[in-house]
Known about the structure:
The complex is a heterodimer.
Chain A: E1 5-7, E2 10-13, E3 19-24, E4 31-37, E5 44-50, E6 53-57, E7 65-68, E8 75-79, E9 88-95, E10 102-103, E11 107-111
Parallel strand pairs in A: 2-11
Antiparallel strand pairs in A: 1-3, 3-8, 4-5, 4-9, 5-6, 7-8, 9-10, 9-11
Chain B: E1 3-5, E2 10-14, E3 19-21, E4 24-26, E5 32-39, E6 46-52, E7 60-61, E8 64-69, E9 74-79, E10 88-96, E11 101-103, E12 107-112
Parallel strand pairs in B: 2-12
Antiparallel strand pairs in B: 1-4, 3-9, 5-6, 5-10, 7-8, 8-9, 10-11, 10-12
Amino acid sequence: DTGVSQDPRHKITKRGQNVTFRCDPISEHNRLYWYRQTLGQGPEFLTYFQNEAQLEKSRLLSDRFSAERPKGSFSTLEIQRTEQGDSAMYLCASSRDHQPQHFGDGTRLSIL
Amino acid sequence: AQTVTQSQPEMSVQEAETVTLSCTYDTSESDYYLFWYKQPPSRQMILVIRQEAYKQQNATENRFSVNFQKAAKSFSLKISDSQLGDAAMYFCAYREYGNKLVFGAGTILRVKS
């Protein structure tokens, strides 16, 4: 069990640029979740996958956000045309069915 | 929509003493799970303890225990024999069967030596 891995750990970009984050879940975990956490707040749900199927999307996930999980393994979260308000920590978590979720270290996004 | 409220932004405890962190939630469901997660500064979120709503018995994990009051929709965390390593942000979270987590705003716990 190597844990949930997220890459990169930090991303600094200019407003208007596109960014992509990657999450590698714990092997054999069929569920994968993305959350967003702003400073001093609890994480907020963005979306989740069961295997390769995206089963739920939050209204927080505007049309500038897209997530994929090809082949039910790793997942990517892309943000297009980044805005100042996108600055946050993006957390990935995985679980086996309804077992407790295990979190990665997160990707901190800073928009200049 | 389900909501989770942590009314204590910050708490302090002396090393070796006991502290209780409060959490209330709102739901119309009868079957759900509750969790406490710990997030040390710049580190990974770690599961501390979980409670299944259909279980009457309060969950315990070593020095950590909960007081689950289903009718009152209350789920507090008690940390006994506090250690310096317990210092972190603590999040209370609610989950319906198989779905997303809904988190509270968190409580910063400071441990004094």
